[in-house]
Each structure stands twice: as C-alpha cells, then as structure tokens.
Amino acid sequence: MLVIGVDCSTTAAKAVAWDAWGASVAEGRSAFALDSPAPGAWEQDAEAWWTATRFAIAECVHALGSRSTEIRALCLTHQRETFVLTDPSSKPLHPATVWMDSRGVEQVERAKHRVGAEQLRQISGKPPCVTPSLYKLMALFQRRPELVAQRPRVLDVHAFLCWRLTGRFATSLASADPLGLVDMARRAWAPELCALAELDEAQLPELVEPGARLGELDRAVAATIGLPRGLPVIAGAGDGQAAGLGAGIVSADRAYLNLGTAIVSGVASSTYSVGDAFRTMYGAAPGTFFLETDLKGGTFTLNWLAERVLGARDPTQKLAELEQGAAALPAGAEGLLLVPYWNGVMNPYWDDTATGVVVGLTGRHGPAHLHRAVLEGIAFEQRLHTHGVEAAIGTPITEMVVMGGGAKSALWCQIISDALQKPVVRARAAEATALGAGMLAAVGGGLYPDLAAAAAGMTGTGDRFTPGPNAARYDALFAIYQQLFPSLRAPLHALASL
Fold this sequence. Notes:
The chain is an alpha+beta fold. Helices cover 40% and strands 22% of the residues.
C-alpha cells in the first residue's frame, strides 16, 4: 500500500509516493515563480500553486504506473504564513502574500497598542513580530481598503489547495495557526485577533485537527491527475511541523534541525506554553503542540557571501571551495565571530530591525574565515535557541536530527555537534517534509494505527556526529557570542534609524 505526501513550498510543489516503510517510490515536481514587486514585498500567483500541485501529483502517479492503484490517501504540507484572498468560488482577488513579506512592521506596533504584546503572545502562541500573517494582512488591507469591502475569504496554502481538491472550505489547525489568528488554547479562531484584521469567522475556513479526514478527492480533479475520485484527503500541517514528523520527532527529548534558507528547529510538547525562546505551533499529531525556533538567516547568509560579496556566478561551486578552506581552519576562525541576523531576529529577541554583526576582523582573515564564521555563528545561535527550549520544557534534548541542504555538509554537522555538545544525526529521508505529510496520510489511510507507530515504521537516521575536541573551545566562544547582540543592540538600532 502507498500514500502520497505533497509539499507546496515557497518555489515548487513536490508530490512523493511513500510505501509503508518510508521509502520513496515515485515523485513529481513543478516549480512556480516568486515575485518581489517592491522593497520588502514578496508575492505569488495562488493559481500557480494549484497548477504546480496538480502537475506534481499527476507526474508522481504516472511514474507509479500500475502501482497507482495501491494509493490509500493523500496529505498536504506547505509554506507557512503565506495567504491568499479569494471570492466565494475560490478565485484569487489579489496576489498571495508570501511568508517573507515584511510589509507589516507598523501594524505590529498598532496591534501591540490595541491588544498588548503579552496578550497577543498568550492568545496566538507567537510574540508580536512581522512574521505571522495577521500583520501582513492588516498592512494589505491598509494599502487596498477596497478589499475589506469585498469581504474576501482568507486562506492559508493548505486551505486553498484542499478547497480545490475536495470542494470543502476547511483547513488543518496545524496549517492555520501560522496566520496568527488562532486562539491556541481554545483551538479555534480568536475573535479579538480577527477584529484587528477586520475579519469575521465566516471569512475563514473551518478548522479540523491534523490527521483528520478533511474530505474526498473531487471527481473532476481526480480525472485530471490520475487518482480515483473519493480518495481520502487527510488534513496536514505546515512544513515545519511536517518536517519534524518526517524526522521522527514525536517526543520532547529529540529535536529536528532544518539547515535550509532559514534554520528551523522544533520539539514536540503535550502542553501549551509560551515564551521568548520559541514560538508555539500546533503539532502534526492531533492535540499536541510544537515549540519552534527560527533563524531567518540560514543558508541565505552563505549564499549572500558567495553571490553578493564574492560575486560568484556559480554559488554552489564557490561554497564548496570555501568549505574546503574553512575545514582547514581551527575552531573559532582565528578570532572571527559572526552574529547571523541578516534578516532580523525572531527568538529570543523578537527584533525585526536587528542586523548582522561581524567582529574580530584582521588583515589575516579571508573568505574561508568568513565562511567558517557563518557556520559557527549559526551553530552558536542554535545553542542559544536550544537552551531556551530546554529551560521551557524542563528536560534536556538528547539528540538533534538534521535535514535540509546544509545537512549535506559534514563540517557543519560536526561544528553544530561541538557547539551544542550534543549528538547530531542526519535524517534518513531527503524529503522529510513530504514524508511528514505521507505519515499523516498513512495513518489516515489505515496503514498505521497512530503517528507513533508510523514514526517507528517510516523514519530513520543516517550518519551520526558526536562532540569532539573542539567542544571546549566552542564553550569559551559561546560565552562571548551571547554577549554580542545585547551589548550592540542600541547602536545597531541607531544605525538602522539612519
């Protein structure tokens, strides 16, 4: 028996057919554009999500051949904080606003004044910053007030695609909560947050638990993608929660760490709590929560070095060269330290105006030193994040399961293990996010009785890295690192104001 996990990410839709042991049997992919029409603005055509998703599923089904009859269920995961406004027939009224969009800083301050920063965090699980969709939505309505009068429907990516797949206007709690409009304790839309955005609940999709049977595949849609009508469509989760599930994270003693454009980590929790050290999401398992940390300047910072600073035409090749040089350097990059706030900082400071810091530069330093300093700075930042989560859950995290493009770097994996003083293991699945969706489909389709059993049967790990002789030196460097941003915060703000 097989299931399909679909990941509609920031630039592409991927459909992967998984067997009951978590092996990828077939896949399909289709890319779509990402537009930046103005400074700080990031938008997409939501219809492109639908076109790419249908194509990816159809390609996956075609690759399966006669085995397509074994498919028991389908589940979606997706880019979070991205939303689209539609009319009652699901036709987009405006380009979708993507998670990277930063046109909401003023609205954050307005919301804090009206509701209070602590109340916003207690209700939504997220300290007020420009990342949740609420503030982007408020900014959009301010720019385009005529949209308010149209009483549009507001949909996350999961809601939009599931509406097209099944005809039901509904979404998963674990997909909707990044909007910042959900009362996390009540597991329902929050009237006071909806009021901030000039919305009522009729404009928002019905909420269902992740893993629930959201609907069945529409007959007309089924005919275009090669799947049987009536195939169960299982409610999914955002890409972060799905990635954690695909890494086998179902308890609080292990965390996943995605070394991608952003550096995202998370642990499962059975109780609802909030704090500056993390943001609280719903877990992919029904009734659970996910304590998540996020550094927006991940491999983005490495690409910045290769492309913007060194002018590389082939950044992949340049980064490979830099890695060789960085590996030959001692821990600490010969006195160079870097704070990777190239895209502001979320936890633990929640400062959208924060900028990066490089200290210790001398004439001895070159590109390889800077490359190593980026890898180490991100590792130190993750140690800061992980300590905060451990303090909140009251138990140590014993293992970090890494995935994403950065996990291919043995140097970086070893640096993270040394800096965090924890074992680091690679996730077995290259497409852990799509696997997480596949696991939800596997439970919904009857392949497993619950997610714990699915995790035991479908996930695994590969190469393992353990703390080495550099761990003690990284202890001393971390003591310096954690002082840098707090001590420089005021002058950095002054500089940004100019």
